Sequence to fold (249 residues):
Amino acid sequence: MKSVIACLGAVSIVLLMANPAYAKQFRSTSKATDIIELFTSEGCSSCPPADRWLSGLKKHPRLFTDFIPLAFHVDYWDQLGWKDRFANQHNTHRQSRYLQLGSISQIYTPGFVVNNKEWRGFFNGDNDWPERSRPVGVLSINIKNDLKKADIQFIPDPVIHQHQLTINLAVLGMNLSTGVKSGENRGRILLHDFVVLSHAEEDALINQDNSFHSLMVIPGTSTDIERIIVVWISDPDSLRIIQATGGYL
Fold:
């Protein structure tokens, strides 16, 4: 009888492993995750070095735990000889908002924004960005088995006195390449990582128990490429990022 029970137990374990509650789970620490944003374009001859620097971060041991890179391709270069297939007006508007908020000095590419502030260390060969260390709360993502929905939970630290937040969900593309046929980068093969392929936003309210749950649809992107999901919580009145987490889909 004991052997039968042992076998049944083994079968149960196998079934549980074969049918997990979630396909993917990601969770931040309580410390604020650094967000490195690069505004770039395939039409800009100064951008490939910045793109390469960002790509170098994919092998960093603290990727996702301490920081997350995002490459926003802007569209204002599209009329100057080459149309960037990853560029869109939403990304350009994001950079313009940073200018309006006083977070950056001007609109340019490549342009780095680290933790919502302009960072020019890259141009000086500085690989160390200003890090955040204060506790802000824990953000978690539970992704359904079909990879189409994300169950998002945020439990703020008591230092966060904010009841309304904006949830941002982005899908990033990795190991992408483009053969540029015209413009400033004509004849070059450009390699990209952490490219923001889609970005959705949703307003949320902190519940009475000082937390919130939200179920968001993961925007459809090609499953033929290596993808990353990133979720970050921001102030609805600004682009200030409070917490973020993510990982490979």
In short: The first strand starts at residue 24 and ends at 27. Residues 137 and 225 are 32 Å apart (CA to CA). The radius of gyration is 20 Å.
